[in-house]
Amino acid sequence: MTSIIINKASPEDWEIIQELGILTFTETFSEDNSEEAMEKYLEESFNTEKIKSELNNPDSIFYIAWEEDDPVGYLKVNSGNAQTELQDNNSLEIERIYVKKSHHGKKVGQLLYDQAVDTAKALQKSYVWLGVWEENLRALQFYRKNGFVEFDKHIFRLGDEEQTDLMMKKTLD
């Protein structure tokens, strides 16, 4: 396997983020959710205006994982008011670690996660947190392996459907 390079995304990368977001979210969740819920969520979360706005938010940072010229995954982290919940100045939210199915098991997710931790440390945050769907067993196993513990739950809306996300955090050294 060729090496994976992680680069910080710029606002000009909006189409790459949009395409990766739609593809990876669909690959990961379409089997377990209705087509209507998926379509509504993808339109709300990955429309051009929203992606551009998120990329221009100074409290959100995106990173793209590249295998040569092929974007294979991405990371979105949030601090301050960009966090979806908590908005604790001592924390960094990992909102998304999405990897193409073709690259599952190739350590791309681990590299993106490591980038999130490095970013949190550089921003002098004391912990990282995230929400993960309670039925996404692969992700839960990944986060537990990386030292995350559950501390709460919240409702995640996928279209008109409500799902339970486990909120997990990891204290940094």
Automatic annotation (TrEMBL):
Keywords: Acyltransferase, Transferase. Residues 4-173 form the N-acetyltransferase domain. CDD domains: NAT_SF. It comes from the Bacteria. PROSITE patterns: GNAT. Pfam families: Acetyltransf_1. InterPro entries: Acyl_CoA_acyltransferase, Bact_Acetyltransf, GNAT_dom. This is GNAT family N-acetyltransferase. It comes from Chryseobacterium gallinarum.
